Amino acid sequence: MSTNKRSSTLSEIAKIAEVSVMTASRALNNQPGVSEEKRAEILRIAEDMGYVANRVAQRLSGGKSRVIGVIAQLHTLYTSDLVLGIGSALRSSKYEMLVYSLSDTDSQPPQAIVSLLRQFVDGIIVILPFQSDYLISLSDADLPIVTIDEGSHDNFPKIVADNYQGARLAIQHLADLGHRRIGFISGNNQLASARDRERAFRDMQAQLGLDDDPELVVNGNFLQQGGFNAAKELLKLPVRPTAIFAANDISAAGAMSAIRDGGLTVPEDISLVGFDDVAVASQIYPALTTVKQPSAQMARAAVNTIVAMIAGIEPATAVIMLPTELVVRDSSRPMGEVVEMPFSKGSRKKSTTTVA
Amino acid sequence: MSTNKRSSTLSEIAKIAEVSVMTASRALNNQPGVSEEKRAEILRIAEDMGYVANRVAQRLSGGKSRVIGVIAQLHTLYTSDLVLGIGSALRSSKYEMLVYSLSDTDSQPPQAIVSLLRQFVDGIIVILPFQSDYLISLSDADLPIVTIDEGSHDNFPKIVADNYQGARLAIQHLADLGHRRIGFISGNNQLASARDRERAFRDMQAQLGLDDDPELVVNGNFLQQGGFNAAKELLKLPVRPTAIFAANDISAAGAMSAIRDGGLTVPEDISLVGFDDVAVASQIYPALTTVKQPSAQMARAAVNTIVAMIAGIEPATAVIMLPTELVVRDSSRPMGEVVEMPFSKGSRKKSTTTVA
DNA sequence: ATGAATAACGTTAGCGTTAACGTTATTTTG
DNA sequence: CAAAATAACGTTAACGCTAACGTTATTCAT
């Protein structure tokens, strides 16, 4: 009820309840060894005084802090989505989340923060898609660690999306629409996800007999600007692709700008498909066809796994792979087909005469 | 050098150095009372054993944890920008940052996290633009708190951008371009920033004698979808506005989609100006004219202030207001003027015919 | 030379909590 | 009914660190 100035301590409560600190501790932690009446009274007093256990002391005393650390680069939308997801998945548990935001220039977190986290939290969820050496320095810790999207060799449970399958879906979709000359804007190949998506692209090229000039693959590094530049390159080709698959939504957005900047239109002149399904994908115009990463499920899986590990239960599988899903919106269209724009009234955009 | 399994403790180091724990502590904390030779040796040993001070213990022992807590809603781009800015501003200091991400449904952080933070960190930077009651519960703490963008009554130092002036600049810009019928997509009026921007709009309407039909103001709630809907409303007006000022970039982006969806073009048919200058503002097409929030400076100011407060120095002013700045890009254009699209090469910036 | 100041340490205690034993009544069991 | 088991507590120590005193030698002023 009353929000006290300084948060009260266990011993204060114990004093008022006229019991030892230990009894108070037991009562509050729901442990045996306290009669029901005393427990009730202690709980009442604690409530009354607005007692909150000091996690710092709890942790130092060898206990748990009930805090889960998240290491992430907040810069990319997709990562933010995941962090948010973890937060809401955690909200139904008794854990809190504290995020360490890695600078975009750092490829690995400073040693300091790693040990800080190690000291304070009960478990760490790492969302760095790097092959990160520093993880090795964590591996010998007793601290549970779960990794999301981490591609490399390691000994932690790993939550990943099925990037390969997702990319295949995207290409299949474009092929189904009649596109045979598809450009690919690749991602940061340091990341396993980028490599998987590119591998899928090349496999599908072969499998479906698509055009496979090497110039059809341009790196966009998962960045807006990278996507812009890459698309510019693709548009400069002697024979222009009729569709572009970008390895993530951000570079797809960049590509869209580049296409417009070149006087062409999506999807009339060029179909465009992204990957991730970040929030803006549905919000840009035209809404982006993309492959949806199951970020909410991934977050939930990560949370479940780490909570289990904290409880001492080792995860059944080292890798949990979640399926991806194609989301068809307005940026992809059958080749050569002239459809009216999905406008409310009658707005005429240039109808495309597709160039061979 | 050697990365030890379990991080070593002070007493281990002291034992090896054959000194007391206290001497080791003094040496490592750069405090007097240790001879230079011993200090050097202790430092060497500590380095050698990969010693890292246990912040949890430091903090519990009444010391500082050298950690700054940040409470923010990571959902909005602008907030993320600020958090990132705080992170990089902190990187040059000896503090680390831990972020608590508030759920978008919560308007206030759970009591638990507040006390958790209070227990562990040396200071808190709050980036909630709410009039948040919970801040009051913090106010009696001994913990330094700095607020960014918080509009309400409170007793903490506050870092804000000059929203009023910024919005005036935006309107003035549109007026200079000849627009006299300007629609306004307002923000979430719970936020002081939104109120300031709307006030500026109305003041300028009066001051410049612009059209001031009440229908020219539609709420967009700072959201993409809200901006979309609001713009739809504005376009439905019997006499359409020739320019739209959105209270933030996100709703401007929504408005842009709506305008396109209505078969019109930015900036040919409608000039559009946003607010914030989040990263995507320059990345959407056409690049958005907007008012730049000095988020990097704000972050730096917040960090400097909190660090000073932790050191016991009360800030000189309760409110630090940083100037905003108009960034003219491609989404605004003189009324009625027909300019070629600013494609690849020669994008000429509009020459302004200033109207009284 | 002698008391006082100083430098360089060491000791004790405590931050708030819990684990691991003690202790004391009360109940159960053979 | 005595011995053993149990329940309901209390005590002690420890987590890793630092603040606040002590202690000892060395230097300094008079």
Can you lay out the helices and strands and say which pair or pack?
The structure is a homodimer of 356-residue chains.
Chain A: H1 10-17, H2 21-28, H3 36-48, H4 55-60, E1 67-72, H5 77-91, E2 96-101, H6 111-120, E3 123-126, H7 134-139, E4 145-148, E5 158-161, H8 163-176, E6 182-186, H9 192-208, E7 217-219, H10 224-236, E8 243-246, H11 249-261, E9 271-276, E10 289-292, H12 295-310, E11 319-322, E12 325-327
Parallel strand pairs in A: 1-2, 1-3, 3-4, 4-5, 5-11, 6-7, 6-8, 8-9, 9-10
Antiparallel strand pairs in A: 10-12
Helix pairs in contact in A: 1-2, 1-3, 2-3, 5-12, 8-9, 10-11
The first copy, chain A, binds a DNA duplex (30 and 30 nucleotides) through α2 and α4.
Biggest sheet of chain A, in brief? 6 strands, parallel
Our estimate of the beta-strand percent of chain A is 5-15%
What's the alpha carbon Rg of chain A, rounded to whole Å?
A: 26 Å
What form of chain A results from the Cα inertia axes? elongated
| CATH architecture assignment name of the largest domain in chain A | 3-Layer(aba) Sandwich
- Poorly predicted runs of 5 or more residues of chain A: 1-5, 340-356
Average pLDDT score of chain A: 87
How many helices of chain A does DSSP assign? Answer: 12
The total beta strand count of chain A reads 12
**Structural domains of chain A: how many:** 3
User: Largest chain-chain contact?
Assistant: A-B, 62 and 59 residues
**What structural class should be given to the helix and strand makeup of chain A?**
alpha/beta
Instruction: Give, in order, the helices and strands of chain A.
Output: HHHHEHEHEHEEHEHEHEHEEHEE
Oligomer: homodimer
Helix content of chain A: 25-40%
CATH class call of the largest domain in chain A: Alpha Beta
